[in-house]
Design goal:
Blueprint: H1 2-9, H2 19-50, H3 53-61, H4 63-90, H5 93-128, H6 136-146, H7 150-165, H8 170-193, H9 198-222, H10 238-270, H11 274-310, H12 314-341, H13 343-350, H14 354-367, H15 372-386, H16 391-415, H17 419-423, H18 425-458
Length: 459
């Protein structure tokens, strides 16, 4: 019964019509991301309404720094997803088992390393970012508590990656919904009832992270599917660890270094004061709903490509990419421009301060209105990683986006110090990077075709 139930959640990515399966796979991912952001938004709304704009700025201004420290390990979960998908598509179930057990150990160890790193480096980095004096003590407190939940965060992400590799995006959604509702309720209890401020928001987040992790581990342990987690067989398998790192480390490094450029941008926003920070925080939170929805298409392209690559179905990979690019443009345009159109109403949820809203609108118009460019850029990265190429998209992204933004800050922005000039660095970098990814993908596919032709002649 358990095996049959697990099978009902999976999607056959390698056979039959593609478009409908992409939608069935992507929708729960989009909903998962939106739910997660809704609960994160609840954090900011609660502290903004009941603890003041300084607390709101403190929670929001830590996002870039958290991403900087966490993205490396989240990137490794991409490696686990690609490797598990490849073995699942090729029906190499013993290798799949070893990948699952290696991934779980990697997640736990990474979580404890992040606790140590967060407690040691978060406060000095906040100082380097120029966090205002009226915000920094609250930001310090938030991060000290928040990082205690890192083992739970990584376990959920790695476990979700394993399930996605088999086409299961629904159960991670159910687990996230359960944990998120608990998080929202605890926010109200801790912040409004106990007057704990940012400490209450952080504590609620940590508790919900461990709940989601516990649910996904329980799912893997009880499953009778090939990706079942057997706790007594937990061990690091060297070749699987190397493969996960080979694919995931460049993805993690890309995310971490992207965060460095975002930290620099956040530092530049900080120089305009706490009101500008609060407006940027609210806008960035709204943009997060657009980005997360588009990122679900990136993950869809990644999972479908890796399974079909493992099964040797290369022609389907081209169709998958074309469909995913079309879907991500639709999602990005509808949601991004919708956020701009309803910007004042949406920002009013976060704060009633008109100055905060005006700062938020200025950011939304530039970034959210062009966000579909980021979506097509990331979807190309998903297709490249799905076929095992992770270093090339990392180098392209670091050059075309990260390095470009840093240069922009010290040249264009330095000569014309406005927030609008700062925000323009995003769409310009997306255009440059997407163009480079397309060229790389076409060259790699041509090389793959030549290798297959040579192999066919030799055989």
């Amino acid at each position: 019964m358990q095996k049959k139930t697990a099978k009902s959640y999976e999607i056959d990515m390698c056979n039959g019509p593609i478009f409908g399966k992409l939608i069935i796979f992507a929708v729960p991912l989009i909903l998962s991301g939106l739910l997660q952001l809704l609960f994160n938004a609840a954090d900011i709304v609660v502290v903004g309404r009941f603890a003041g704009k300084e607390s709101m700025a403190a929670v929001g201004s830590t996002t870039a720094l958290i991403n900087l420290m966490v993205n490396l390990f989240i990137g490794l979960s991409v490696g686990a997803n690609v490797l598990a998908g490849r073995y699942y598509g090729a029906k190499k179930f013993e290798d799949l088992q070893e990948t699952v057990h290696t991934s779980v150990i990697l997640a736990v160890c990474g979580g404890f390393l992040l606790i140590l790193a967060g407690e040691t480096f978060a406060s000095p980095l906040l100082t380097m970012m120029g966090t205002p004096d009226d915000v920094k003590p609250l930001s310090d407190l938030y991060l000290q508590i928040y990082f205690l939940g890192m083992p739970g965060t990584l376990l959920y992400n790695f476990g979700s990656a394993i399930l996605r590799a088999a086409g299961d995006t629904r159960r991670p959604l159910y687990f996230l919904l359960t944990a998120g509702v608990i998080n929202a309720v605890l926010n109200l209890i801790f912040v409004i009832g106990f007057q704990m401020g940012v400490a209450g928001v952080a504590t609620a987040t940590v508790i919900s992270q461990y709940i989601s992790a516990g649910l996904i581990v329980q799912c893997l342990v009880r499953s009778e599917a090939p990706y079942r987690l057997r706790l007594r067989e937990l061990r690091l398998v060297p070749d699987k660890l190397f493969s996960i790192i080979k694919i995931g480390f460049p993805a993690g490094m890309q995310g971490a270094i992207f965060s460095i450029s975002n930290v620099l941008i956040q530092s530049s926003v900080n120089s305009f004061g706490s009101v500008a920070m609060a407006g940027s925080t609210a806008s960035a939170n709204i943009e997060g709903f657009v980005y997360t929805s588009m990122n679900a298409i990136y993950q869809t392209a990644l999972s479908f490509t890796s399974q079909n690559f493992g099964a040797g179905k290369y022609q389907r990979m081209t169709k998958i990419l074309c469909y995913c690019l079309g879907i991500v443009v639709f999602v990005g345009v509808v949601m991004g421009d919708g956020a701009v159109f309803f910007g004042r109403q949406l920002l009013g949820i976060y704060s009633s301060d008109q100055d905060v809203i005006n700062y938020g609108i200025a950011r939304l118009k530039i970034i959210s209105g062009t966000y579909f460019l980021c979506g097509i850029m990331d979807t190309m990265v998903g297709a490249l990683r799905g076929i095992g190429y992770s270093v090339i998209p990392m180098l392209v992204s670091l050059t075309g986006a990260c390095l470009f933004r840093v240069i922009w800050i010290y040249t264009i922005f330095a000569g014309h110090r406005t927030l609008e000039t700062l925000y323009l660095s995003y769409p310009v970098s997306w255009i440059i990077t997407f163009s480079a990814h397309v060229i790389c993908y076409l060259l790699i596919r041509r090389r793959m075709a030549k290798k297959r032709a040579e192999s066919a002649r030799n055989s």
